[in-house]
Amino acid sequence: MKTNGNGHTNGAGATATELDTSDYDQLIVPGLGKLEGTTYPGNDQIEQSVRVILENIGEDPQREGLLRTPSRVAKMYAELTPAIISTPTR
User: Exposed (0-12), middle (13-18) or buried (19+): which is 90, by Cβ within 10 Å?
Assistant: First the structure.
């Protein structure tokens, strides 16, 4: 890794560094990334759980900016764990 040269530090006084992605090439598994055009179904139980979480942190799940959040979270979990939660559809 190399310093980024912009003078930023990590809060402990050390110079911030840029990520050298070649250090992580061995961790990349081809074929397991997001497939463009693939959609994932929601999950009613996960959506309801997200609503409960939102309520418990003091949010209103019916607020305009949060109305679709439970569905987005459920689809995110389906995308991350398709073999466990659902099968992607096209």
Answer: exposed
